[in-house]
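Checked the freezer inventory, then went back to the computational side. Two predictions to log before the end of the day. The first one is the construct we discussed on Monday; recording sequence and tokens without edits.
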Amino acid sequence: MSELSDEEQQIVRLAASFTDREVRPVARELEHANTYPGALIDQMKELGVYGLTVPPPYGGFHVSTKCYALVTEELARGWMSLAGAFGGHSVVCHLLTRFGTDEQKDAYLPRLATGELRATMALTEPGSGSDLQAMRTTARPDGRDWLLDGSKIWISNARHSGLIAVLCLTDPTAEPRHTGASILLAEPGDGLTISRDLPKLGYKGVESCELTFQDLRVSGAGLLGDRPGRGFAQMMAGLELGRIQVAGRAIGVARAAFDDALRYSQERETFGKPIYQHQSISNYLADMATKITAARSLNLYAADRHDQGHRADLEAGMAKLFASEVAMEVSATAVRIHGGYGYSTEFDVERYYRDAPLTVVGEGTNEIQRNVITKQLIKRGRLTP
């Protein structure tokens, strides 16, 4: 497995320092108030976080996927919402870099790299969930342009994004159905309604919205790539990076929960000794640390496969599946270790416990991940690549 360059190691350390210095002291207050973290996001722009998947000719860093995963992990360790604030943005940058025309790259990537322009992707629809092939959002030609109609739901950062990569049907009659799907690069305007911000258990501060498209005009130059019908394959390739990012979020949440539990177990005493000296608590800590380490190794393995240019949907699916389940288990165990205080909003472990479930359902539910994993195992005929 390749190692990070010296520059990439410095980038990860910078993200960790930013998290400890700027994020952790304010995350609890911002999260409980469900306040959009504008000041922190501005600092993330200055750090170059929004350009991590943009190649240098367009002003970004374009670090390895491993570095990107570790930066995500560090930010999620402070507050998962911040990692989510650039997750979809990064996938759109990756889609443009890999599939966009030269004109599309020139038009968008320089502004995306600085965060001047922010992007999100719109996949999920009401009633279809993770079944992307059941989507009903369509785009019909109108001269050289497209008119977009339909609805999307659970779209993060929708109110703060000036570019939305919308997966839609440009040929609803195509068989198989996925061959009629395309990605349109839509910009907000007449015909787009952001109807509401959806209330959530966790993942506060960053909005998740319902979008309605009614004859939203998208320029013919807004079709990702050079021809329609490739959107489903393009988005599946983008989701490899997206699932590695969600796994990074999960590992960051798990690390934060473990760190708090480890510290508390040394401070809290019962029966005349710190609670970590009780075997039940000691066993918890050992299992938590082991599973977090395993999750990180699996995610870095998936990232390494992605960096090498190999198909990584199997590995990314495994990483997302395992890391998110670890985040759920570790955050719940951290509440147990804190006892009654774990149920108090004065401690951060209750936030980790509320944030972790998003990683189980985000970027394709874990039930879908298992389907993806099994399908690729059958196709490859073996476990090792």
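The second is the one RB wanted added to the comparison set:
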Amino acid sequence: MIMTSYTMSRFLLFSSVGIGSYLTGSYVERNHKKHEKEDYVKDLLTQVYSKPGLPIFGTVSAASPIPLEEKSTVPSNVSRIGQIMKFGFPGLDNVRSYDDYVLSYDRRTRVAHWVFEHLTAERVKHNDAVDRSKCDFKPDDSIHPFFRSLNSDYKGSGFDRGHLAAAGNHKAEQKHCEQTFFLTNMAPQVGVGFNRDKWNNLERHIRKLTKEYPNVYCCTGPLYLPRKESDGKLYVKYQVIGSNNVAVPTHFYKVVVMETADKRLEMEAYVLPNQKIDDQTPLSMYQVPPETIERAAGLLFFDKISRSNLSKINGKKV
């Protein structure tokens, strides 16, 4: 079939229009998707900045949304939180930041996943202006009422309200000490032989580390470890107390990083059973490889530090 010049011209004209329309349409669609993506990211960031529990807010109460452009509204203790979490967050589930420590709260167990502290000799030394006896155990109002633990849960349970971030670690200001008495920072602990004895010994040991190391970073939390029953099978079993079913951990851990004056890093890791412990048992008996705690807790501690950069773990050279 022979195509005339008129037919050829019309064919080329329609082809050009079609291709041009396709290219224009593709450009518009790509540009539209680009704007959609930018809007999505902007919305996401806005949502993140408006969350009440994220570490940036440094508050224990529900925070008002902070617009991205109003940077001056961010509380001044953000830098303190940066110091505490210098080597990374083990997780970001229901994070609550207080003036001198940070925690991640487990709404299911009513006990924190982890609590992080940064200790120095200056912050843990005796301060006449700080009086622990004036501190009261109190619920944390930043937690939804469905998921809070209450003082009534502990009453008559036979367990102490055991600190995770120790009150004795926060002596710089009265307010810092008082904030360690929020029930979000508590866990049911055996009293005599544990909370008041061996666990207290461990807390004192970690405070003593500040005499040797300028910076001490401590992560504390509960564990719910399996145990073999009479049928030969392993079960994770733990008691709950009170009307809010506050979980009683089977064990507690502390993972500590010490920073020397010349920036070398050392680590110690402990797991203690939540039971009466013979006071004569040395704390070194409860030192474990940090990896075992990470596997049991489902958390990665100090993830910004490569283990190969640690000069010692539990007193032994790496």
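For RB: Residues 18-50 form one domain. Confidence is low (pLDDT under 50) at residues 40-75. Let me know if you want it refolded.
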